[in-house]
Amino acid sequence: xxxxxLPENLSKISNGYTWRRITIGHSESKTYLLxxxxxxxxxxxxxxTAIESLLNEKNRLExxxxxxxxxxxxxxxxxxxNEYLLITEIAGVxxxxxxxxxxxxxxxxxxxxGLREVHEVKIDNCPFNQRxxxxxxxxxxxxxxxxxxxxxxxxxxxxxxxxxxxxELLFKRPMMEDLVFTHGDYCLPNIIIDNxxxxxxxxxxxAGIADRYQDLALAARSITYxxxxxxxxHFLDEYGIKELDESKIYFYQLLDEFx
Length: 259
Known about the structure:
35% helix; alpha+beta; globular; Aminoglycoside 3'-phosphotransferase, Chain: A, domain 2; ATP-binding; 3-stranded antiparallel β-sheet; 2 domains; single chain; 8 helices; Phosphorylase Kinase, domain 1
């Protein structure tokens, strides 16, 4: 059920749909599935005081049209309190769904195939910078402004302070970056599988030019959490990693603690 007054143009577009709140994931926005016609839609509503803006995702989705299977932006706007982003649905089920437990090996192949597609997007004219210099500076600002959620740290870092993690991050920063176009949060809830095939990826707000290990590290962590660590190597083999850089896996999982 609708909980607030929408901007007039958005209200017209979404009129006649049935709303259902989607709670999977850790987004700052409230996400709703809108059903009732031949095409399902997703609406994200986020406070203007949120750390990240929905405008980031809107701009990336528009840039990616024709390059990858991503949602289409139908509406973006804001009022005095919120931002609103209305997008089309990518058909399928997210890859963390328990229905995939019996076919997890096959799913690893699809996750790897999907990530290769993302990393093959040409970066020559990409306007979205997620290189380490930019990301570390953003992490530093989040620590200074008390915006890091210590309670959401991975198990191995619980009890440490954001300041402790920032020191470690600076000390373990990789010397070189293998730059590709990255999703930025390539976790199973963001990967859509349809009829046992990779269908697309959602939640593109952190996408941009970065080291490929930005995606590999978070994918490995998500696979471990959802299906068990034994499946990670299969995923990496399918992706084409011949010699894994464990230090980068660790570093990019550490970096994610700030976001």
